[in-house]
Amino acid sequence: MKKIKHKRFFFLEEHCFSIKKNFFNKVISQKPLQKVDLLHPARSDLYHWLLALSWQKFLLLTSIFYLVINIFFACAYLTTGNGIANTEPGSFKDAFFFSIQTLSTVGYGSMYPETLYAQILVTLEVWAGLLLVAILTGLMFARFSRPTARVLFSKVAVICPLNGVPTLIFRTANQRENQILEAQIQVSLVRNEISSEGHFMRRFYDINLLRSQTPMFGLSWQVMHPIDENSPLFGASAEILAEEDTELWVTLTGLDETFSQTIHARYSYTYRDILWDMKLVDIFLQASDGKYYIDISHFHDVIPFHPKEVNSDHRRLTVRGK
Question: Is residue 242 a part of any domain in this protein?
Fold first, then answer.
């Protein structure tokens, strides 16, 4: 099953800006803001910064730090002259590998300090090695033990009639084989608005769903919002959504039955991701043993919605029911 990287986004408190519209649009369009850069200043919250790094960047950073600290002590050992036994004087290679053995407290015995100056350097490096091992052990444990959600969201949302009512529809799926208990989903509509005084605001609207929670989330969940008179999308069109730079922000929370901890997943849809007069392809399959499966290969696929075909099918069902 292919893992899909989720879109990430940030939350703004609802407030207004008395600034120019082009600058306002530039600020709110900076998405995603949750990515972490290696050049990001980490002095204010170093622990969270290290946890938020991707595994590739984290391993790269720790490897660079490991090499730098060994190079530093290797250069310090070169200043001892003949202070390290069984090493060639002035050999950076011997000093470097002696530093690695000392930092990891391996101590094969073939190389050892002979002078007081060398003993002091070894003491400092062993102390630094103990701190390094303790810190890296804690960071690795925190990263591995942190519960994460593998929840897949459809790349697009569609708007099509459902029981005669225009309905916003998208779907999500649990990519793990376990269950997410007491899952809840919340959808917010975010768009630009101008007050009567000329203030630009990024307004939030909570969207009512036909079903916003489920006791067990195991396969797929089709999220539906009827666009009626109480909906912020009532009377909207694709052009209006583009003009207002409309977005849908989705958050899903639940209890992972394996870790018994709360997990979170989030996604966002821009107005470009909302397709009109389209419907999602059916992905449910039933095997011969009676179990239901979902076809992830068509999870993001959509097909045009044809009202005539639906009406004709509905008439046939009505006649058959009579």
Answer: yes
Task: Provide the whole-model pTM.
Answer: 0.65
Find the length of the chain: 322
Say which residues have a Cβ less than 8 Å from residue 16's Cβ, sequence separation at least 6. Answer: 195, 199, 200, 201
Contacts of 251 (CB under 8 A, 6+ apart): 185, 186, 264, 265, 266
- Taking residues 249-257, what's their average pLDDT? 92
Residue 153 DSSP symbol: E
Number of structural domains the chain divides into: 2
Task: Say how far apart CA 9 and CA 164 lie, in whole Å.
Answer: 33
How far apart (Å, rounded) are the C-alpha atoms in residues 160 and 167? 6
3 state DSSP class of 28 = helix
Residues 82 and 184 in one domain: no
Both 113 and 154 in one domain: the answer is: no
pLDDT at 3 over 50: no
What CATH code is carried by the domain that includes residue 289? 2.60.40.1400
Q: State which H helix or E strand residue 313 sits in.
A: helix 307-321
207 neighbors 231 (Cβ within 8 angstroms): yes
Q: Decide if pLDDT at 275 tops 50.
A: yes
